[in-house]
Amino acid sequence: MEIVNATGRRKTSVARVYVTPGKGEIKVNARDLKEYFLSEIHQTLVKQPLVALKAENQYDVTVNVEGGGIKGQAEAVRLGIARALVSVNAENKPVLRKEGFVTRDSRMVERKKYGRRKARRRFQFSKR
Q: What is the pTM of this model?
């Protein structure tokens, strides 16, 4: 098996994921996973697809991620890893689909409209 790549997106974050056979190293933006995602919650979020397939120590994962915040980036990386694992072996898809890792979360920030303070918030009305 050679390098398999996939893209994961969430909010405004985009993660380009490269999966190769290896011993379980995860590099994010040329840094170790624990160094990039300091929170334990975000680290487990990223590892979820590998844990679901019991393949934590079978693949090395390299990720380039940009845009958005830490949570959005972690979820984008999770989707990218899940898609890459499906590319590696199509039999992985039902397991990952059941856990909800293959579905793209399409929720985005609603744009600000003119004449409003935010997307939907109006300016304060003054009768006098």
A: 0.91
